[in-house]
Design a protein that fits this description.
The protein has about 80 residues and is α+β, with helices and mostly antiparallel strands. Helix content is about 30%, strand content about 25%. It has 3 helices and 5 strands. Strands 4-3-5 form a 3-stranded antiparallel β-sheet. Strands 1-2 form a two-stranded antiparallel sheet. A hairpin with a 6-residue loop joins strand 1 and strand 2.
Length: about 80
Amino acid sequence: MQKKIPTRRCVGCGQMKEKKDLIRVIKTPEDEIYLDTTGKANGRGAYICNNAECLQKALKNKGLERSLKSQIPDEVRTRLEKELG
């Protein structure tokens, strides 16, 4: 029997991709927002493709804000852009 590969939807482009190909952005219970490189951190997660283009789409169409259920501060936005750029 073949093991099922977990897939997630990118909040930028809307494509379903394998979980390991996407980057997880999380909001912790303390309302911090950052990139989760391990994919295992506690908190509400949203997934985006590993490129700046999808991050821009996710920020523009408010997909990231909708998924994390909170506003994204400018300094966090800048940090995400730097880390993905």
